[in-house]
Amino acid sequence: MSLLLDNQFKELPPDKSIDTKLFLDTVSHLPSFFDCLGSKIFSPIKSDISGNITKIRGVYVKDPEKYATLKSILEAEREEHAEWPKAGATLALMWLKRGLRFIQILLQSLADGEKDENNPNLIKVNVTKAYEQALKKYHRWMVQGIFSAALVAAPYRSNFLKALSKGEEVKEEDCLANVRHFLVNYTPTVDAIYEMYTDMNAELDYTV
Ligand code: EIS
After folding, report:
1. Whether the CB of 48 sits within 6 Å of ligand 1
2. What is the set of domains in the chain, with CATH numbers?
3. What tens digit of pLDDT does each residue of 132-181 get?
4. Whose C-alpha in 67, 115, 158, 205 is 20 to 30 A from the C-alpha of 59?
5. Pick from 160, 99, 107, 171: which is nearest to 135 by CA?
């Protein structure tokens, strides 16, 4: 069984609203994936993402009906917090979506066969592309340093693809087909979250 295929995102409805419970149930499988990357350097990244998910879930469980969609959370918090959008689940999702975008760009780049021809079993080009497009502009030099350390610890392409398939002996082409299949609903979901932040004027560009 493929790790990715086990946790497929659902197709978005025409209004592109995202069901909070389904979203949380799907993204909560992501943190455990860091365990198969095999280095402690990934721990702060794992706990950041887990923290975001816990924060959003904490708001959702207070009133599942009121917070049925991600948009309803942003709308409610806009009324409740003077410092919105730098508050509550709105802030947690703002950061989580950047991690999700990172994963999307990384997987898309692998699926597209982008490679360093001199080092075809490294994923540094793919990871760097994802970092530059999704995260770098929000990071000052200290956090960029964590990225550099993580890059050194990045797994080999073959091991990474195996980890995506829970370590099973899956042929590279089959694994890439799984990745492409996963991206079919994943990419529009991440896009929809970005669109919502733009439409609601909830995006911030401060650095950490
Ligand atoms: C936010 O963190 C909190 O998330 C948010 C709130 O506290 C807010 C306050 O301003 O801060 O400081 C964090 C930032 N989060 C801001 C940085 C953490 C370490 C990031 C290191 C970046 C390394 C890049 C990744 C390299 C990975 C190499 C992978 C090789 C395979 C399949 C791999 C998936 C990797 C996914 C990476 C996602 C990184 C996400 C980082 C987000 C970030 O920059 S709140 O908390 O509101 O919930 O309380």
Report:
1. yes
2. 17-198 (1.10.3520.10)
3. 999 999 999 999 999 999 999 999 999 898 888 776 778 889 899 999 99
4. 205
5. 99
